[in-house]
């Protein structure tokens, strides 16, 4: 009954959308835009309550999910972070069940009331739930937190989520003005460096070093290499720093055999994937291991100056067969899987190859071969899911991995693929078969 009612509601919304597109005035568009505020919050309420019901019943755990984030992300086809927002809201503004089966009130009763009335959005709830978990908030006794939460919930409808979180943090700081108990130990230092790949290639590097020695060491090396080449050097200081960092890293990659550790079983390197035809045409097109396409000039320089490990592809863009029957994954085969999957192959996952493991689709102990047509690259989370849930994976006729969701998620079990590999194939000859171990699902690959 519920899916039918929701489908009818969706149809009405689509009809309004079509009418607005064809005959809507500016005022109609403005009214429609304002109305989506309530609609969006109503959908969020439905999602949060649905997740809460499934958590109280233990459905996620019964399906093999240690945490419900991944299951919610698969159902809604959203990023894990978005799924985590929904789960976190369900944990804080929905009724809970304790170990004895007794129903408990929400952790944040005032925010729960604001959320259910539409005064607070999902993001409002998520940010306040995260504030509650902060060290300063944990020092606030429950009776005081209740008053703080009521003040926060009272202004939720007039604040953006960021403004509300800032207001809540100020209230917490006002109560906790003395801070934590004095600690004679050395303060914890924050030293972190974030590498964020960009969709079109390249990436963004940002970091914080509160350790003065480490920061000074890094700054000294970069400063030494960032000196202007001439008085007319057109590069800005930031551009010279970026060039200096790349030059220093390039030097270490070339000459650092004694100081660089192994990574995933091999020395750090730059891998270039290139088609056989392009290789024969002097490598005018290629892609890098972590994403991005170098310019022809950069590719020529890379091939000239660096240690290049080529992954040569055949006419169907598949790695040429490199094989050896063994349980452990030989380095050439791992490189072939990296060239094919480019990271975790599970739909929607963005983990790069360096964060991934190689999974035998048909287990090696059960006769599965260590060959490219029986291997798939998975991050740790999705590797565990393949072994503990009803998800299954197979290699289709075109040689690419595709995943079959469990029946509770999709009754038709329609195959899914990562967007980078294209739409799923339609072959039935690689249909997954159930493993003899309960709760584990594998796919059998024809030899």
UniProtKB/TrEMBL annotation:
Family, as annotated: Belongs to the Rv1128c/1148c/1588c/1702c/1945/3466 family.
Sequence ranges of Polar residues compositional bias: 430-440
Gene3D superfamilies attached to this UniProt entry: 1.10.30.50
InterPro entries in UniProt: DUF222 (IPR003870), HNH (IPR002711), HNH_nuc (IPR003615)
Domain HNH nuclease: 332-384
Natural source organism: Pseudonocardia humida
Protein name from the UniProt record: DUF222 domain-containing protein
Stretches the record annotates as Disordered: 406-447
């Amino acid at each position: 009954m519920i899916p039918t009612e929701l489908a009818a509601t969706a149809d009405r919304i689509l009809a309004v959308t079509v009418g607005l597109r064809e005959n809507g005035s500016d005022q109609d568009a403005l009214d429609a835009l304002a109305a989506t505020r309530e609609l969006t919050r109503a959908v969020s309420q439905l999602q949060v309550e649905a997740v809460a019901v499934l958590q109280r019943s233990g459905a996620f755990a019964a399906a093999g999910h240690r945490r419900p984030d991944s299951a919610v992300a698969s159902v809604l086809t959203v990023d894990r972070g978005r799924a985590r927002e929904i789960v976190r809201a369900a944990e804080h503004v929905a009724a809970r069940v304790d170990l004895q089966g007794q129903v408990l009130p929400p952790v944040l009763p005032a925010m729960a009331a604001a959320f259910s009335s539409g005064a607070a959005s999902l993001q409002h709830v998520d940010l306040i739930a995260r504030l509650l978990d902060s060290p300063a908030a944990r020092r606030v006794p429950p009776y005081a937190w209740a008053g703080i939460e009521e003040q926060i919930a009272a202004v939720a409808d007039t604040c953006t989520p960021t403004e509300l979180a800032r207001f809540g943090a100020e209230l917490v700081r006002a109560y906790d003005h003395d801070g934590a108990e004095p600690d004679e130990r050395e303060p914890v230092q924050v030293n972190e460096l974030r590498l964020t790949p960009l969709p079109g290639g390249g990436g963004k590097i940002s970091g914080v070093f509160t350790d003065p020695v480490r920061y000074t060491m890094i700054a000294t090396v970069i400063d030494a290499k960032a000196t202007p080449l001439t008085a007319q050097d057109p590069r800005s200081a930031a551009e010279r720093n970026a060039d200096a960092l790349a030059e220093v890293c390039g030097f270490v990659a070339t000459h650092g055999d004694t100081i660089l550790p192994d990574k995933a079983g091999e020395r750090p390197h730059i891998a270039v994937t290139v088609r056989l035809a392009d290789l024969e045409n002097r490598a005018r097109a290629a892609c890098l291991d972590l994403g991005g396409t170098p310019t022809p000039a950069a590719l020529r320089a890379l091939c000239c100056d660096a240690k290049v490990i080529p992954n040569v592809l055949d006419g169907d863009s598949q790695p040429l067969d490199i094989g050896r029957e063994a349980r452990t994954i030989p380095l050439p085969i791992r490189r072939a899987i990296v060239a094919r999957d480019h990271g975790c192959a599970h739909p929607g996952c963005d983990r790069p190859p360096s964060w991934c493991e190689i999974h035998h689709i048909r287990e090696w102990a059960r006769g599965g071969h260590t060959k490219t047509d029986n291997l798939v690259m998975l991050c740790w989370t999705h590797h565990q899911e393949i072994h503990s849930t009803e998800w299954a994976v197979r290699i289709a006729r075109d040689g690419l991995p595709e995943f079959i969701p469990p029946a509770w998620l999709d009754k038709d079990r329609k195959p899914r693929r990562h967007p980078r590999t294209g739409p799923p194939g339609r072959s039935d000859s690689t249909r997954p078969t159930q493993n003899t171990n309960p709760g584990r699902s594998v796919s059998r690959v024809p030899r």
